[in-house]
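step 4 of 6: structure.
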Amino acid sequence: MHWADYTAQKLAGRGSPQVVVSGITPSGEFHIGHLREILTAEMIHRACLDSGIQSRYVFIVDSMDPLRRVYDFLSPSYESYIGVPLANIPAPDENGEPDEEGGSYADFFLGPFLDALKQIGVEPEVVMNHLTYENGDFAEMIDSAITNREKIHEIIENVSGRDLPEDWFPYNPLGSNGSLDGVKVTGYEKPFVHWVDTTGTTGKSDIRLAEGKMPWRIDWAARWAIHGVTCEPAGKDHGAAGGSYDTGIPICELLGGKPPEKMVYEWIQLKGMGPMSSSKGVTIGPMEALSLVPPEILRYVIARSKINRHIEFDTGTALFEMADEYERFQVPNEEDGDLSKRQRIARDTQLGAMRLSQVERGSDPADWIAGVSFRHLSMLAQIKSDDQGVWSSLQRSGHLSGEPGFSLRGRLERMRNWVDGEHFPEEARITIQSEVDRDIASEIGNDSRAFLEMLARGLRTCDWDEGSIGETIRTSAADSGIENRKAYIALYMVILGRGYGPRVSSLMSEMDRESLIGIISSI
RNA sequence: GGGCCUGUAGCUUAGUCAGGUAGAGCACCGGGCUUUUAACCCGGUGGCCGGGGGUUCGAAUCCCCCCGGGCCCUCCA
């Protein structure tokens, strides 16, 4: 059974409806690691719906979280916003300067991410956490946390094993400059928390408004109670023993809520570059990923892996394999009575992964298979500059009957982006030589030259289609007495500058006759 | 220091919760498709399941120890 279905089944015992939640801080560009957070939760949500369990999927944006530091993409003028909630900070302009007209920092980064989510079929209920503070929904929780201050203090110290300062307080008010940093609590009279900030200014925060926030570990536990969260997969950073999941559970219970089961997913790494990190430049954004990888396959990347396995996101050679694995999928057609228990499990898991990979819930995975392998398509995309040429080639080769569907068109569009970009693997790149390199020419032996001469002659008169060209190659090889293998290698060397490549006759049939003959004769 | 996750064929992995002869894909090799090269079909090679000990009639699976990799205990998907 697929992990999402398994989780849905376990959740069914918790009552209804399910509230499946993701939470992310919009502190900068989103990356595909965040996509795992989102998709893990969204797939569980879908699995619930698919098995008839009522469910909501909520994306809580941590817009009340403060700016922690001035990131590389921000100008130094953001220094003054450190500690200020992201919802209250102006978005950066193209130079990284605060742009007073550009809306909030949180919205600025959230917008494109939500657009990307839409493309992969994810349309969550979005909750801006600062609004939950602003409309007073946190007030009871804050009051309760302050009242139970000692107990919470004890939970955090016992569970996480770290020492909290004596004057620790479960609520951080905003100071006179709008920052949470360095503000000391001096007293509490419901609903006001009194404080003094770093400038010596005193004031009071109304807990029914967004005039302060609870520290992360309590904030998280409180929102479980407020929103009735039944499931929230968290990154492994939260999941470690003594981490915020472990403290959140008892704190949530203390606050009168019923916490979700602990659920932890592994991180996505970029091939050979370790974990995603914006500050180290190790990052691929969801939009960039979507420009290369079709949305159903991007979903499949997440769906095919168990949640506690790390995912290596590879936009190089491995993408061929990933995509072709998706393409190979076939709806099981018979009863499979002779499958072993294991094979049945594997098949059902695979079916689940394919089902959950669909952009539109409920659509048939079989409708979203392009019918052409990524490898083959990558060759066509490289040798055919116009799309129509690709379609006709596919029709001739029998990959396509009739007109290309939406799915296949999307595949080609992204394939072209991939081919044109930096991620496309060199060994898959086809570069037709405009002239033959001297070193290469010197490596070609006399027997091969004889073959190439004969071929050039044959190509002048043969029909210009794959079959005839192939035939001409074979006869030329036979007539010149060279082994087929050697003939092909020589041909590849001349055309591509290396001894191997895609089916050479189809490659040649896409080239202009005169220029091809020119190259071959130039030896 | 304390703890969590993880280590199965060259690569990616299923199977570990409920112990019963190690499954798959890629790659590779062989064959086929009225002749091959990154299309397609069929078949095959390949695994002391990280190491050691224990429980058991029987262990990849349960228990203990060790080794390697990742992560957390300060905010981090």
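step 5 of 6: annotate
 - Chain A is about 45% helix and 10% strand.
 - The mean pLDDT of chain A is 86.
step 6 of 6: archive
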